[in-house]
């Protein structure tokens, strides 16, 4: 009786699982990595995270992040994933923690290009999953996606890269994703010798072909498991003997049978069939031919769905694999209780092939009233051999120790408390410094620590969460939960490498942006600390301010002031937001330049932002610009020497080529990136647009070409045509050009950039009669005492100068609303 109950509940669980699967499979484990890239990229429905977010899984002798953008050989077409790669000069491995045992996809993306001394077109290497060799002495010749699935029985999945002798390994993108248990079950037939195959569940499989018969290419977006299906035309031996049919809307998935996870309706709803015409005596096979590796067994999955018959029992046909009759007198309607258009599949395991091609045929059965035969889909999967290999005899490399892993564990258990202590110390130092500074500075926004309590005790004395204090402090997790409607997915306003950003409302009504880090991300912890550290030290009208943070329960949550108008980028392209006027754009650039100028000069040590881009410039309700995202910031250049070996960080299209070459970080790298933003603002197009002709892909190169010709007006945002005064445009273009100088020393400081942009604004606003080129000092004198040209400004403006200018801009152009707000917040 007890066992009967148990069986009953197992059935219920099973039935519930079927229900889950029919709603769409949600993988428990999912790792998508954009190797070598500093950017997250969305491909299909998945976000491939920047390399830095995955480095915690990796043990490798050397960090080499290759970027094709700065090279002559650029994969101009194809996936964004192919633009960067990670290079492994010695045995390297990723260790992914697996929450749910069972089969997992492993997808490897390759696209060879040349990076420095590494010519990936000649790289040779092996890749292993656990102990199974996936590829062996492999040299990808072109854009290549290799898909495998392996059964993971332990808590970790190790994927190892092993360079062949005198070579190196690389990969452009990597993914590891759970596969539903129902996809590969132990239910395959052997046909030679005939019988049942046991042990399919434990096999490692490689997808050799996945074909949509008689239908179009099915992209990964249109497959619930992120698979792709190619059309069968090119595999047909005699295409004229075949025809196709499509009836996608008719497809039914039977109760307890295949779901759309087995194959989507676009596969079951299209077929290739015999082209019998109206000849009732037609007697031929339709045959497809595939290339295979000899010496391996293959799992062949045939997908059928009778979308051609008008009544049950009309269609009867034969199926041959490699000339063996594997299904005689197949009558699909009998497999589904007389129903037509019902999904059905069969699995077969072959003996090891001894040749490199095999054929699959369908042909009429004498029992059929009318000669016909069809096939809707086909999958061919290579199975591992008895040496546990899918590819030759590669030998699993040995790894020197497991230092890195230990480091991660120690890092987590010691690092978090240590970080908190450090943050605490920082705050106290910071408060000290604040008080010191207040005595010296006229312009610093006064800090009020409510009631003089320290930040730690703030919450024990009261529960109101408010922004009354300008000093960031710890916010209880429960308050963050409340503010974001328990992290309501519909409140998500952005997704970044660090995690999701939610809109939130504190209980005093203050709107906030809540950035919630992935709790397991070690790299994230470093960025979390940097961001708190930077933003609590540096407060400025043109830097996004931190309201608080939460580190309870391993959470890494940052709470910022809410920026009503989102990113600058979203106002330039890719959205339906109204166009910004030229004046608004200039003011935004000036604001952002001011924020960066402050970072570079405003404190004892310069801070380098390292990720200046239009997506990191946010706009408040008055379209005032504030620089955000300090996760990558570094103080420099004093720290240079110690950072020579760290991986180059930043974003594609904005990266300073000199920083890339020399790996030396200075403020001038930010100036370069800012120059790219300046062109982006003018041209209103993405900084990298792979869909454009090759010479236009990279905005910095493209715009510089036109700037040097003196014809920048040819490529400006069409919405600005006729609205920019030529002098203003010229000044603006020159400013950008100088920012993009090849060598950092030739680039202006952020202070110079700021003044030149202000000048460009004034040239736009003022009715200038003089020719500024001939007599610029004179014009500058008329416009404003602060506005100078590159030649007239001290190369490194002092803090005092900065503060003067900052005071000045409070009374400046169209900033009055901002000013009144500031006064109000200071008065609290
Ligand atoms: C790489 O693939 C592209 C498109 O798939 C093709 O045009 C090109 O000729 C291939 N290159 C080589 C070297 O095979
Ligand atoms: C269907 O068949 C026609 C010709 O018979 C062919 O042109 C077309 O490409 C086929 N469609 C697919 C998706 O195979
Ligand atoms: C997905 O399928 C829909 C409907 O069949 C089609 O309109 C769309 O273009 C497909 N998407 C891709 C990326 O192939
Ligand atoms: C179809 O192919 C099978 C296997 O090669 C063969 O035995 C059969 O005779 C063929 N049928 C026709 C009608 O050609
Ligand atoms: C594939 O590897 C598994 C696990 O090592 C092993 O049990 C199985 O026998 C192998 N398959 C074949 C066909 O030898």
UniProtKB/TrEMBL annotation:
Transmembrane regions listed in the UniProt entry: 406-429
Entries under CDD domains matching the protein: STKc_IRAK
Topology within the bilayer: Single-pass type I membrane protein
Keyword Transmembrane helix attached: yes
N-terminal signal peptide: 1-24
GO molecular function: ATP binding; protein serine/threonine kinase activity
Protein kinase domain span: 487-760
Subcellular location(s) per record: Membrane
Classification via Gene3D superfamilies: Galactose-binding lectin, Phosphorylase Kinase, domain 1, Transferase(Phosphotransferase) domain 1
Entry-linked SUPFAM superfamilies: Protein kinase-like (PK-like)
SMART domains assigned to the protein according to its UniProt record, in alphabetical order: S_TKc
Recorded GO CC terms: membrane
Protein name in the entry: Receptor-like protein kinase HERK 1
Source organism of the structure: Abeliophyllum distichum
UniProt lineage: Eukaryota, Viridiplantae, Streptophyta, Embryophyta, Tracheophyta
């Amino acid at each position: 009786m007890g066992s009967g109950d148990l069986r009953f509940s197992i059935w219920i669980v099973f039935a519930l699982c079927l229900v889950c699967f029919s709603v769409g499979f949600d993988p428990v484990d999912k790792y998508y990595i954009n190797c070598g890239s500093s950017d997250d990229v969305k491909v299909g429905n998945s976000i491939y995270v920047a390399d830095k977010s995955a480095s915690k899984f990796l043990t490798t002798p050397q960090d080499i992040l290759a970027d094709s953008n700065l090279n002559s050989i650029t994969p101009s077409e194809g996936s964004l994933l192919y633009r960067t790669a990670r290079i492994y000069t010695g045995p390297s491995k990723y260790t992914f923690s697996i929450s749910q045992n069972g089969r997992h996809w492993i997808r490897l993306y390759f696209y060879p290009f040349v990076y420095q001394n590494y010519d990936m077109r000649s790289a040779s290497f092996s890749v292993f999953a656990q102990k199974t060799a996936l590829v062996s002495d492999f040299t990808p010749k072109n854009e290549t996606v290799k898909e495998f699935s392996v059964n993971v029985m332990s808590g970790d999945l190790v994927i190892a890269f092993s360079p062949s002798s005198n070579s190196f390994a690389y990969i452009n993108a990597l993914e590891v994703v759970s596969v539903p248990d129902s996809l590969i079950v132990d239910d395959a037939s052997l046909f030679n010798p005939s019988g049942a195959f046991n042990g399919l569940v434990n096999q490692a499989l490689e997808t050799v072909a996945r074909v949509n018969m008689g239908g179009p290419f099915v992209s990964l977006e249109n497959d619930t498991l992120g698979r792709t299906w190619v059309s069968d035309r090119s595999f047909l031996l005699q295409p004229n003997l075949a025809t196709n049919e499509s009836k996608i809307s008719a497809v039914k998935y039977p109760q307890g049978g295949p779901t759309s996870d087995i194959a989507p309706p676009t596969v079951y709803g299209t077929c290739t069939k015999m082209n019998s015409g109206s000849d009732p005596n037609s007697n031929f096979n339709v045959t497809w031919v595939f290339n295979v590796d000899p010496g391996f067994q293959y799992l062949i999955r045939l997908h059928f769905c009778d979308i051609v018959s008008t009544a049950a029992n009309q269609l009867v046909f034969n199926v041959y694999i490699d000339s063996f009759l594997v299904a005689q007198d197949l009558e699909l309607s009998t497999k589904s209780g007389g129903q037509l258009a019902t999904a059905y599949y069969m699995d077969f395991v072959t003996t090891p092939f001894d040749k490199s091609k095999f054929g699959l045929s369908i042909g009429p059965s004498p029992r059929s009233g009318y000669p016909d035969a069809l096939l809707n889909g086909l999958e061919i999967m290579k199975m591992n051999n008895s040496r546990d290999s899918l590819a030759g005899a590669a030998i699993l490399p040995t790894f020197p120790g497991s230092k890195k892993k230990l480091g991660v564990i120690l890092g987590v258990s010691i690092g978090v408390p240590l970080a908190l202590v450090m943050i605490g110390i920082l705050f106290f130092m910071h408060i000290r410094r604040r008080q010191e500074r207040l005595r010296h500075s006229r312009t610093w926004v006064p800090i009020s620590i409510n009631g003089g309590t320290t930040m730690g005790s703030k919450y024990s004395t009261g529960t109101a969460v408010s922004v009354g204090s300008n000093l960031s402090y710890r916010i209880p997790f429960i308050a963050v939960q409340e503010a974001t409607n328990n992290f309501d997915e519909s409140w998500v306003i952005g997704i970044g490498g660090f995690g999701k950003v939610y809109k939130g409302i504190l209980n005093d009504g203050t709107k906030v942006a809540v950035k919630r880090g992935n709790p397991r991300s070690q790299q994230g912890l470093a960025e979390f600390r940097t961001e708190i550290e930077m933003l609590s030290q540096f407060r400025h009208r043109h830097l996004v301010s931190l309201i608080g943070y939460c580190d309870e329960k391993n959470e890494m949550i940052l709470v910022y002031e809410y920026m009503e108008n989102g990113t600058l980028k979203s106002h330039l392209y890719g959205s339906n937001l109204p166009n910004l006027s030229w004046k608004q754009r200039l003011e935004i650039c000036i604001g952002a330049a001011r924020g960066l100028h402050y970072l570079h000069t405003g404190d004892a040590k310069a801070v380098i932002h390292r990720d200046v881009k239009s997506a990191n410039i946010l706009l408040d309700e008055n379209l005032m610009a504030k620089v955000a995202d300090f996760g990558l910031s570094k103080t420099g250049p004093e720290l240079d020497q110690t950072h020579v070996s760290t991986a180059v960080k930043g974003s594609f299209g904005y990266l300073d080529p000199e920083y890339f070459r020399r790996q030396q970080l200075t403020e001038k790298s930010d100036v370069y990136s800012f120059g790219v933003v300046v062109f982006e603002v003018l041209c209103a197009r993405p900084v990298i647009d792979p869909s454009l002709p090759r010479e236009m892909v990279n905005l910095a190169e493209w715009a510089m070409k036109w700037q040097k010709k003196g014809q920048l007006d040819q490529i400006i945002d069409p919405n600005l045509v006729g609205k920019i005064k030529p002098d203003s445009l010229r000044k603006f273009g020159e400013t950008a050009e100088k920012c993009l100088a090849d060598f950092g020393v030739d680039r202006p400081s952020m202070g110079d950039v700021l003044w030149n942009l202000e000048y460009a604004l004034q040239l736009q606003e003022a009715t200038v009669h003089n020719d500024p080129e001939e007599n610029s000092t004179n014009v500058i004198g008329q416009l404003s005492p602060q506005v100078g040209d590159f030649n007239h400004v001290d190369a490194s403006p002092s803090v005092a100068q900065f503060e003067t200018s900052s005071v000045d801009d409070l009374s400046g152009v169209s900033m009055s609303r901002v000013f009144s707000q500031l006064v109000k917040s200071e008065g609290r």
